[in-house]
Amino acid sequence: MESIDPSSPTAHSWNSQLSVLEQDVLDEYARLDENLRTVVGPAPRFLPCPLQPSASLACKLDELANCPTTEIMDGLRQLERKSGLVYTLLKASVYSIVLQQEMYAVDNAETP
């Protein structure tokens, strides 16, 4: 595992009693913390979300939090119906293919 460059912004002056591996782990946690703060932090209200790709997760969470529960449930019901329809069509297609293969096998067995 590589150690963090001391000049990098995520490098911290950890306790000198830590091993290199422990320092690397702490540096990774610091980098993860910085990334999460960047992504999940509050998005400024003066710019629309599409202009801020780093804040897209925060925008989506904000949008979901402000969306009424009934709208979310209606959307989930529609998704459930559509996925049920897709599953039914997939089963019918697979059954049709299996049936055709059985018919071809019977036809090939009967012809000398």
Automatic annotation (TrEMBL):
GO cellular component, one term: microtubule
Family annotation (InterPro entries): DASH_Dad3 (IPR013965)
Keyword annotations from UniProtKB, A to Z: Cell cycle, Cell division, Centromere, Chromosome, Chromosome partition, Cytoplasm, Cytoskeleton, Kinetochore, Microtubule, Mitosis, Nucleus
Pfam families, per the entry: DASH_Dad3 (PF08656)
Subcellular location: Chromosome, Centromere, Kinetochore; Cytoplasm, Cytoskeleton, Spindle; Nucleus
Protein name listed in UniProt: DASH complex subunit DAD3
GO biological process: attachment of spindle microtubules to kinetochore; cell division
Family assignment from sequence similarity: Belongs to the DASH complex DAD3 family.
Domain of life, per lineage: Eukaryota
Main subcellular location of this protein, as a coarse class: nucleus
MF (Gene Ontology): microtubule plus-end binding
PANTHER family the UniProt entry points to: DASH COMPLEX SUBUNIT DAD3 (PTHR28017)
